[in-house]
Write a structure and sequence with these properties.
Length: 64
């Protein structure tokens, strides 16, 4: 929250959204959040897309 300069309210909204989408779960006994398998899969796909992004940009600039 502090590293990305999000307010408490905005952080809470994001957490609620991520929980509703099944990407995070709240472990009440531990009072912490855990990334679900679905969330880990999303992060894996996101990272792969980020790796491809410079290649796509290069291909687009070469095609001009």
């Amino acid at each position: 929250m502090y590293d990305v300069y999000l307010s408490h309210a905005m952080t809470r909204e994001y957490l609620v959204l991520l929980i509703k989408q099944g990407l995070l779960e709240y472990l009440d006994g531990e009072r912490t959040f855990k990334t679900t398998d679905k969330g880990m899969n999303f992060l894996h796909i996101h990272n792969r897309v980020q790796e491809l992004s410079p290649l796509i940009t290069k291909l687009q600039s070469n095609g001009r």
